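We store sequence with structure; for instance:
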Amino acid sequence: MFAYYLDLALRSLKRNKVLTALMVLAIAVGIGASMTTLTVVHLLSGDPLPGKSGVLYFPQVDPETPASARQSEPYPAMDFRSAVDLWSAHRADRQAILTSSPVKVRLPDSGQPPLMLSMLSASADFFPMFDVPFQYGSGWSANDDASHARVAVITTDLNQKLFGGTNSVGRILRIRGTDMRIIGVLRPWRPTPLFYDPWSQNFSKTEDVFAPFTSSLEINKGNFLPYTCWHVPKDPRDMEHSDCVWVWLWLELDSPAKARDYARFLDDYANTQKSLGRFAVGSEHVRLRNLMAWLTARGQVPGDVRLQAWLASAFLAICLFNAVGLLLAKFLRRSGEIGVRRALGASRGAIFSQCLVEAGVIGLLGGIGGWLLTLAGLWLVRRQPVDYAHLAHLDTAMFLTTFVVAVGASLLAGLIPALRASRVVPSWQLKAL
């Protein structure tokens, strides 16, 4: 029967091409607008480390002292003492202490001017925790952290720029006057969003150079910038002894029980520091979130994108209302034909199914048009000066969703017109004939 209904639907659509084109256009425009924004939201809210995000945690403790300045949300970074205390406790399966800073980099004896780049200072667990891929070499070890080793890892982009993409492991990189031996080169790696750095834009590139945390404190002293300070530092170069937040931690806890234990440890630490007078607040201002919960709290999807998604969805609803009106007009104009079929024995269910098949065909055609408009919309997004523009591509899941939404929306729009058509009284239509 479906093949028969499909044949009737195609004949009906060919009979009134202008009305068919209007219905297809209404669906296509609504689908194109909504799927463009929904695709962007889908890509922005993705999991940067599928399969591992549930065991990665971002701890926050708040050392601020002015009671009147307390926030509902702790700072995204910590003061140096707090971060080192927690890192040195070794209460997690893996843990990485991090901070970022600008740095001057050049090749020794190259005669070229130095490059102003960004450097991530991290402990050795950073690379295995976040499954960082290497093209050449590897990261450093905990012994390198302890010995303040002068080693570095660089990105594939920097390797291409400085060494033409060849294996640069063992080469020397001069970072602010200190020679650092390259021990690793990353493969192309751009976590989306850039979750591990709370100061960066959500969709920024990674830092250019990675160096041991302990070594960086020495070679780049004076270039570390605070998130905020609750007392003016006596020496702006000495961030390690300042009342400023500029360092943060990431933890790997491979079971919910370990996460609960670490949360209690954080509470105890904050309460102890409060009792010593170093913290103004205790455990009430402590947070321990897994990766996805942290991204949600951070607001990884920009507010303007969410607003655009709501507006596009509203526009799709308006297009569907138009499609309902057009379908209703189309089906009721065929009341005579429907009356004859009913008089020859066709049931109301058969008429209803026939009309829904016709609506589904219109939705499929509208989905093709909506897919093309979605591709055009994403192309325009990629031309925008926003940090997430490079993500605007249609993946397989959203490609399939486009057609599911188009056909589903057209079937929904066709319910009322099909129901009205199926209730046509045959005797009235035969009299009119």
Observations:
- The two ends are 28 Å apart (CA to CA).
- The chain has two domains: 2-45+302-432, 53-298.
- The CA atoms of residues 49 and 130 lie 8 Å apart.
- The chain has a mean pLDDT of 82.
